[in-house]
Amino acid sequence: MTTQTALSTTNSLPQAGQVPNFVVGLEGVIAAQTRLSSVNGQIGELIIAGFPLEALALKATFEETVYLLWHDKLPNRAELADFRQTLADFRSLPEATMTLLRQVARQKVSPIDALRMAASTLSLQAAGEPAMSDSNQRDALALLARFPTIVAAYTHLLREQEPLPPDSQLSHAANYLYMLTGQPPSEALTRGLETYLNTVVDHGLNASTFTGRVIISTQSDLVSAIVGAIGALKGPLHGGAPGPALDMVFEIGQAENIEPYLQAKLNRGERLMGFGHRVYKVHDPRAAVLAQAAQAMYQADGDMALYTLAQQVEQTAIRLLEAHKPGRNLKTNVEFYTALLLHGLGLSTDLFTPTFTIGRVAGWLAHAIEHQETGRLIRPKGAYIGQKERQWTPLERR
Ligand code: ACO
Questions:
Q1: Which are the contacts of 112, defined by CB distance < 8 A and separation ≥ 6?
Q2: pLDDT tens-digit profile of 206-236?
Q3: How far is the CA of 18 from the centre of ligand 1 (A)?
Q4: I want to staple 66 with a disulfide (CB 3.0 to 4.6 A). Which of 33, 45, 304, 362 is the partner?
Q5: Cβ(344) to ligand 1 under 6 A?
């Protein structure tokens, strides 16, 4: 007797084009209208709520960017102060969230999985949480404000330390760094993180944003939409790992190793991490912004050695990739300088994806709310390729 545990699939799936209107991976399919962000891969352009990324990311505080996405306008001084204060008032975690984090830390669950589990508990109220009559607005504020608290608290619990309470005087970005390290961060480090969070806040209808929109389109709630979006983001094809790009720079170690190291990788048929992109065919605008932010941060720190080495790696990689795949325009992508920037902020690689989530959650929430206002139930069709005329056999005769 054989025991079959896995679902079997037919091995003769039709290819795109054989089934009318079937587009593998929905590539190129327009599935929503949005005012939130526009990604144009042909000219290397990312627009966030009307602003080219380059005009926004290096100047705005993260609170300003979120306000812009959520309200479709930049806040004035009073609106910004009010938004900052409201967010700060939501930072503390419900008791049940802390209990959960303590339990999962004992099992050494990864920080991104801990964040996914803890996010589910954010429908619960925290002690002293401001009263809000609109539960949608309350959930959006609780999710945005509490992700840094969860990630920082979990980092301490993994090290068997007690988490630090948030500091309501600090900005969203500065408070995250403070809760991680126990030190109020320098202006340069805060600016570096603000720029990173602004840069990753939204990026068209990527897989996690689409997931969130699908969930909210059933008239489900924001917490459910965001938990689903984290599940989509954590996969290696999406929120993936800027870690390997950093590992590559560390393995290279010094300038004279760059070319032999990279050439050997290409000769072995391996990919150079942090280069190439599915959508951006001329350049990834996020890479240029993050390179500038990382440079300012390392300069302020006074040690440019790693940044200079990374720049040399980048130049050589682009030259070798052009020789390796002529005309394919394989340029630096967002992951290369993300790795450098987050490392410069003192974050370990397992915090890279959770920190990405701390920025992207604002975009997910903006999309979910936009879909609530204007969208329709998302319900595509599948092309049936199974059998049609099977005969039923009673169990005892199978
Ligand atoms: N190193 C070496 N060769 C590469 C690289 C690379 N980084 N990127 C693409 N190529 C090769 C491909 O193998 C392909 O070769 P082929 O025509 O012989 O098959 C050719 O160049 C063209 O590739 P594209 O079609 O432009 O790349 P694709 O869209 O399939 O993949 C991807 C895009 C996954 C980002 C790819 O460039 C890659 O693997 N890069 C390295 C990993 C990485 O940096 N990932 C993060 C991306 S940013 C983000 O997702 C947020």
A1: 230, 234, 239, 350, 353, 354, 357
A2: 999 999 999 999 999 999 999 999 999 998 7
A3: 27
A4: 362
A5: no
